[in-house]
Give the backbone structure.
Amino acid sequence: MTLAPRRLLSRLRDLRARAAAPLPELVRLVAAELVSEVCSVYVQRPGDILELAATEGLNPNAVGSTRLRVGEGIVGLCAASGGVMNLPDAQNHPAFAYRPETGEDPFASLIAVPVRRSGRTLGVLVVQNRLPRHFTEQEVDELETVAMLLAELLPASGASEGTSEGVGGAVPRVFAGTTLMTGIAIGPVVLHAVRRTGITLLADDPDAELARLHDAADRMQRGLDALIAGVAPAGKPADASATREVLEAYRLVAADAGWLRRVGDVIRTGLTAEAAVQRVAREMHDRMRRISDAYLRERLADMEDLANRLLTTLSGDEPRADVAPGSILLARRLGPAELLDGHARGIAGVAIEEASPSGHAAILARALDIPAVGATRGMLDTAEPGDLAVVDGDEGQLMLRPEADVRTAFTRALAARGERYARWATLIGRPAATADGTALKLMLNVGLSMELPQLDRTGADGIGLFRTEIAMLARGAIADVAEQAAIYARALDEARDRPVLFRTLDLGADKMLPGTVVEEENPAMGWRSLRVGLDRPALLRRQLRALLLAAGGRPLSVMFPMVATVAEFMVAKTLLLAEARRVRPSPERLSVGTMLEVPALLWQLPELLKEADFISIGSNDLMQFLFAADRGTPSLYDRYDLLSQPVLNLLDQLIAAARPTGVPISVCGEAASRPIEAMTLAALGITSLSMPASAILPVKAMLAEVDLVAFRPVLAAIRRGGMNAGSLRDPISSWAREHGLPV
Ligand code: PEP
Ligand code: MG
């Protein structure tokens, strides 16, 4: 099967212009041009059924009667996976579903290409040959182009857009997902346009299309530069500069000539610039989908965002001009620039079908304070523009077309929340303390510079955990010494006289840089974090140097993650002290601490307490290793409790050992951000707690009402009475509720 791509495309163009019944003509044309015995089109019908709609080469009587379920047979598998199936010997493939009425017995090789539109499968294009053969990359390319054309023809032929329920309707629906950012938003829905409809597919003049592409790419790049510089169109300079790291990373992807070159190649085969951008975006999407690394997959959203932006620029439209203030943006995936545009236009909330709490969209939603939910699968199939929706970021759910009473309840909740925030706002300038007068330090956990303004917004006492690896993950690479120093200096500048505890790079496990492929059975317990730093001392030394340069003579606090032995701590500390001797000016005070995340450290406390200036408990990892329970496994999420005998006993012992030495102990894992845990930690004697910005004021408000003198004996009694209980949460919470505490 030799291909003359331009010829096939020009025939397809003719066909589109004249054919009244294009499907039978199309399969005939493709079979002839590809010198193949069979070309068929299966169309997706309501109920997730794929029906043979046209064929050249199979039994014509099978048209309209041969049906497969999505997921059934090779055709069904292609529709379900959205990927090309290229099989030299299809009949011996385990998924092959034999349909005698088609007469397909003699055909050995098969290629199935999904026909997709707006990310949904509309049907499958199939080509079969007698000879067992693997279709070449160029052939796959050609069939992909035919599939794009089919995507425009199929809706007219009655294909269902991959939904079994019909679109819209006034039925209320609830989509359970995950919290990306807490908060409630109510408003009319706008659908994030995954791609523009009705674009012209084929072009006569590739040179003119290439010129259009380059002009649009330049304009898009300039628009991004402006967005990143914070002058337009986001409007609010603080927010725009706050999103710098993520956008910088995004701009690097945009400026990557590789994908634009590939778009140019596709244009040269006869497609318009728009069609070529879509085509390349889809190829990248397919490639990325096969990558299991969460961070790399995030790049996918960036790429789709860029492709959409480029399409918008090509069409001369303003990005998201249709988004009204107060609306709820629903998207399959959402890249950073698109969310920033939405924010500039005043969106009230977002729901994203494919987004995780660690993704870029979630990071930005938190920085911009937009209630957001993710993993709300299926919502786009039923939502119509203008539908009323509630984003319930607290519970991680989206309600579409809610009943009147649900609407009222959420409107009330929103109002109550407003009042609560107003009350909390009065606490911002006041020192944190409990009702009995115990002073507390409530500190911020920070990952990106964009979060720094939260220091003043929440009135936090400093930064208790600066996760230095996050900025590197946002960039996709480890920044050089000068760039790192600039990031750290900014944190110290914005903290002014408040302390900042920098944690050295904690890469590995769930925080992998692109390109680092480490095959490990248990990455959380693998070659990660300080272990990498100790084995690659140059990397660690560069970071320590950057921290010292950033301090520029100011006090500096550095801690190391995942320390398992005092010996490891000593090697890291020695590296820091050696670097400190080289950098001038020296910090006014250099504090060297450790995170306590690996239980083994608990049996080295006397030695550790002699060497460490402070200890910060990373409760997320400590709990994971103490109970041998993966922190990323949802079904284990609440199986083991910090409020339990073993953990409280452990904390008691740690506090007792540290007290005479004067080494301060703090907690910086998620546990510190939950009011009941914060109250219990304070009762045990841990009064320095570090948490995400959203928790500072709620925890401060709650602790302000706790009388620790009254609570301590209650806690002791609860511990005595619950010797065999897996968790002490219920009695502790009951006491809090009985005392009217806002938990
Ligand atoms: C922890 O483990 O509790 C911690 C604060 O570190 P991270 O969540 O970044 O692993
Ligand atoms: Mg940790």
Summary: The CA atoms of residues 718 and 731 lie 7 Å apart.
